[in-house]
Amino acid sequence: xxxxxxPESEPAPTLAxxxxxxxxxxxxxxxxxxxxxxxxxxxxxxxxxxPSGWTPLELIRHLQYVEQRWLNWGFAAEQVPDPWxxxxxxxxxxxxxxxxxxxxxxxxxxxxxxxxxxxxxTAAARLEERAAVGGRFPTExxxxxxxxxxxxxxxxxxxxxxxxxxxxxxxxxxxxx
Length: 177
Known about the structure:
The protein has a single domain (19-170), classed as dinb family like domain (Four Helix Bundle (Hemerythrin (Met), subunit A), Up-down Bundle), CATH 1.20.120. Helices cover 51% and strands 0% of the residues. The chain has helices at residues 18-38, 42-45, 56-75, 104-123, 146-170. The protein is globular and about 45 Å long.
């Protein structure tokens, strides 16, 4: 699994700028997700040991779409052809999936591309700035701030990286950080 060159640890404990801190932790969780997934074989990436049935590769694809929904479609109000493309039928209540024939490298490339695009969307924006109207949010009243959106993404990653940690352990891999 290839990763773009990023610092290997959490942001520095002396970092006080909230924007840099949120972005730094988001990158930290992205790296942690990929590092944990890299410990799995191709077969384990596409297998599940969980009653809910999701696979680690499906989880990576899901997080790609989570970022797209919240930052591209949500914050930037970009028109996204299939914002729920991580779901089997496109129904938000449906299970995550990786389309038949999609390789692990294709999933990883799409994830990396989305992370790069997410960084572009957030780089010049201010934390107090509200999401643009016309994408995910039809009215200004519904549009969250960038700070809220980044914090929401962090909790998504924290939860899902913890779930991946359990999946890696069940597959016979290591535990913890």
